[in-house]
Design a protein that fits this description.
20 strands; single chain; 12-stranded mixed beta sheet; alpha/beta; binds 5'-O-[hydroxy(phenylacetyl)phosphoryl]adenosine; globular; GMP Synthetase, Chain A, domain 3; 4-stranded mixed beta sheet; Rossmann fold; 2 domains
């Protein structure tokens, strides 16, 4: 006989028990785990130990949860500076998996997992799926990219641990995605929201429907409420948001429940704080600021007070789903200039690195992001030197080619480059505005 333990709309699954703990019990677990992880990082992470030393504190100074604010922050460049293994806290023979951030040559960031870390990751993914009402009778089409990106394998292990049927199709090949969806009776899809929008546009053109598809678990990039409404209205499915980042674990740091009213953070594994991005001061629940996360159970690469650069607010109000863990508001922007295109994280400075390798260009450029037929495009407008501009068209075309290739070498995806006349890109007096995001929804 089939059990229905996780078929309920609230999405209960044995792994979800920690979502419903009384607050003081949860805080107790958090404090114990925080003390243990700080001890571990202090003993094994040189950078953390040095920074603690500069502040004149040690693990024994952590007496209450509020003391977390005394600990130093970690930032993305710490991972680059210690590349590749400098922050690992487990010997290599205990590390069973490595992932790395996509989209960069030069130094990517590398993250590590022990077997226990992979299990925690699977469990938080199970809880994410359960929150969205996904259960073991579901057939999940996993269109997140498999590989160094955490989306593919993260969702895959979670879907299997849930007991669902997972189709590891990865991203791309739109027509095949549609065929598989119909022929295999897919009920749940996992992908970036922009890729699903593209699938939806294509399905409309081909006049095919989504068969049994019931819901989508979408994340890895910001998407608006308007985009959710459009997806739900046009395809008839429920679209749930899922959040995560490689540095902390991958997808499954937080996820929406059927209320679709903020993402529940799996607080027994990830301690959230909101800070003022300018001053670094901790802000109270409800205030908007930068999300800072501390991993409470990661072994191979604990992250203490990692500055995510994602802007949100913490909501401590009880949720109608019954979960006691706090929620974060959906993330719409970051406090730095990183943008995400087709699932790839890109900094304008990387684009600049690529184009400045090519002679005949000036360091004046603009990145224009557009969305057509659900597909994100990135155009780079580059100003050329007067000498090149007066040359023959062939020289321009050659330059054009070399620029497109140079940028692709750095960020890993091809952008359309447009050469523009000297003195046509606005100069700014303060910070240059490099990114014009025209993507609607
Ligand atoms: O994008 C992990 C992930 C995979 C999350 C699949 C959800 C689903 P990174 O490539 O390291 O990891 O990128 C992390 O992406 O700091 C946010 O800026 C952004 N991001 C991730 N999820 C969301 C979301 C994965 N639901 C960075 N809404 C993060 C808005 C998101 N932004």
């Amino acid at each position: 006989m089939k059990s229905n333990w996780n078929d309920a709309p609230g999405g209960f699954h044995p792994a979800s028990a920690h979502d419903f703990l009384p607050k003081d019990q949860l805080r107790q677990i958090q404090l114990q785990r925080l003390q243990a992880v700080v001890k571990r990082a202090y003993a094994r992470q040189q950078l953390f130990r040095e920074r603690m030393g500069e502040r004149g504190i040690g693990p024994e100074d952590l007496k209450t949860l509020a003391d977390v604010s005394r600990l130093p922050f970690m930032v993305k460049s710490d991972l680059r500076d210690t590349y590749p293994f400098g922050l690992f806290c487990s010997p290599m023979e205990e590390v069973v998996r490595l992932h790395a951030s996509s989209g960069t040559t030069g130094k990517p960031i590398v993250v590590a997992y022990t077997q226990a870390d992979v299990e925690v990751w699977s469990q938080v993914m199970v809880r994410s799926f359960a929150a969205a009402g996904v259960h073991r009778r579901d057939v999940i089409q996993n269109a997140y990219g498999y590989g160094l990106f955490t989306g593919g394998l993260g969702a895959h292990y979670g879907a299997e641990a849930l007991g669902a049927t997972v189709i590891p199709i990865s991203g791309g090949n739109t027509e095949r995605q549609m065929m598989v969806m119909q022929d295999f009776g897919v009920t749940v899809i996992c992908s970036t929201p922009s890729y699903f929008l593209h699938l939806a546009e294509r399905a409309k053109e081909l006049k095919i429907d989504f068969g049994k598809l019931r819901c989508g678990v979408f994340g890895a990039e910001p998407w608006s409420d308007a985009m959710r409404e459009r997806i739900q209205a046009e395809t008839g499915i429920k679209a749930y948001d899922i959040y995560g980042l490689s540095e902390i674990i991958g997808p499954g740091v937080g996820a929406e429940c059927f209320r679709q009213d903020g993402l529940h953070i799996f607080e027994d594994h990830f301690l959230p704080e909101i800070i003022d991005p300018e001053t670094g001061m901790v802000l109270p629940d409800g205030a908007e600021g930068e999300l800072v996360l501390t991993t409470l159970s990661k072994q191979a690469m604990p992250m203490i007070r990692y500055r995510t650069r994602d802007i949100t607010a913490l909501n401590p109000e009880p949720c109608a789903c019954g979960r006691t863990i706090r929620r974060i508001r959906r993330i719409g922007r970051r406090s730095d200039d990183m943008f995400i295109i087709r699932g790839v994280n890109v900094f304008p400075s990387q684009v600049e690195t690529g184009l400045l390798k090519v002679e005949g260009t000036l360091p004046h450029y603009q990145i224009v992001l557009t969305r057509e037929k659900g597909l994100d495009e990135m155009e780079v407008q580059v100003e050329v030197t007067p000498e090149v501009f007066s040359d023959k068209v062939r020289a321009l075309e050659d330059l054009h080619q070399r620029l497109e290739t140079a940028i692709e070498h750095v960020i890993g995806i091809r952008a359309k480059v447009t050469l523009v006349e000297p003195q046509t890109i606005a100069r700014s007096e303060g910070k240059a505005k490099r990114v014009i995001d025209r993507r609607k929804l």
